[in-house]
């Protein structure tokens, strides 16, 4: 496994040592080859797949030899980490532990946070999701905007981030931190106004913060938004929450007691 190097795919692609100094990786094509391999740590990526990812159906003459040359240069750059870039059969793999790659730490933390939340552990979920979201230091794969090989991964990461942000807000609400949730969710519903679950959490936070009328107004606002802009009816969760708010049914409204001390 690679030694003390860490690999960063949020923001510009970087490979850094334990002392914080980053390696010189060379050309854009070379960095793109590394990115393709890092997105599948420990998995063999055939040369033909690397060619398809980089040149999406229109490879230049001698593309396979070019990939081999780029890999040879990357091996030299990564030599301090030992045999981290391994050639097998007709492809290559990065023999790197996922926890040394920032996008893997983020994805693993987001999944673990969600598991803790659904398992009834909001405090653990909040801590885990805070750590996962802290990995997001810049746009994913920022060196390769618009490249077909990055599009699906970027979309997947952005969706995962939106879910993680939502899960963190739910965890904080269950912990009784209604004030924080009102501020955070007010921002989130403005940024992503069509996520109905965010609006449910926002309305619940408003109610838990003692703002019952504002909670009902938020529910009415998202109902109008969904119908007028998307032609959609509000879902059963939002309707159930509205009934609970009108009836002051605390047991049916997400949220916990405020923290003490």
Descriptive account of the structure:
With 261 residues, the chain is mostly helical. It contains 10 helices and 5 strands. The strands form 2 sheets. The chain has a 3-stranded antiparallel sheet. It has a two-stranded antiparallel sheet with strand order 1-2. Strand 1 and strand 2 form a beta hairpin. The radius of gyration is 23 Å and the shape is elongated. The model has no long low-confidence stretch (mean pLDDT 92).
Itemize the secondary structure elements and their pairings.
Layout: E1 6-8, E2 14-16, H1 28-38, E3 45-46, H2 47-55, H3 63-77, E4 85-88, E5 91-94, H4 102-118, H5 122-134, H6 151-174, H7 178-191, H8 196-208, H9 212-230, H10 236-246
Antiparallel strand pairs: 1-2, 3-5, 4-5
Helix pairs in contact: 1-3, 2-3, 4-5, 4-6, 5-6, 6-7, 6-8, 7-8, 8-9, 8-10, 9-10
CA-based gyration radius: 23 Å
Coarse shape: elongated
**CATH homologous superfamily caption of the largest domain:** Winged helix-like DNA-binding domain superfamily/Winged helix DNA-binding domain
Mean pLDDT: 92
**How many separate structural domains?**
3
- CATH fold node name of the largest domain: Arc Repressor Mutant, subunit A
Q: Estimate what percentage of residues fall within beta strands.
A: 5-15%
Order of helices and strands: EEHEHHEEHHHHHHH
């Amino acid at each position: 496994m690679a030694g003390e190097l860490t690999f960063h795919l949020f923001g510009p692609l970087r490979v850094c040592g334990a002392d914080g100094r980053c390696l010189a990786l060379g050309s854009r094509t070379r960095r793109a080859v590394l990115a393709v391999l890092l997105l599948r740590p420990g998995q063999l990526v055939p040369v033909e797949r690397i060619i398809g990812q980089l040149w999406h159906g229109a490879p230049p003459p001698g593309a396979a030899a070019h990939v081999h040359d780029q890999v040879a240069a990357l091996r030299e750059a990564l030599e301090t980490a030992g045999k981290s870039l391994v050639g097998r059969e007709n492809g290559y793999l990065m023999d790197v532990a996922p926890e040394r790659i920032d996008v893997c730490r983020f994805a693993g933390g987001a999944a673990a946070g969600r598991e803790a939340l659904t398992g009834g552990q909001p405090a653990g979920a909040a801590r885990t999701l805070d750590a996962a979201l802290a990995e997001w230091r810049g746009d994913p794969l920022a060196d390769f905007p618009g490249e077909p090989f990055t599009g699906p991964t970027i979309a997947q990461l952005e969706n995962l981030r939106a879910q993680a942000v939502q899960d963190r807000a739910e965890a904080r609400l269950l912990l009784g931190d209604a004030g924080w949730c009102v501020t955070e969710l007010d921002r989130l519903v403005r940024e992503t106004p069509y996520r109905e679950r965010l609006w449910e959490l926002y309305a619940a936070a408003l109610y838990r913060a003692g703002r019952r009328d504002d909670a009902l107004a938020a529910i009415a606002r998202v109902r109008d938004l969904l119908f007028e802009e998307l032609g959609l009816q509000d879902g059963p969760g939002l309707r159930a929450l509205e009934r609970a708010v009108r009836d002051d049914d605390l047991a049916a409204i997400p949220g916990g007691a405020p923290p003490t001390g």
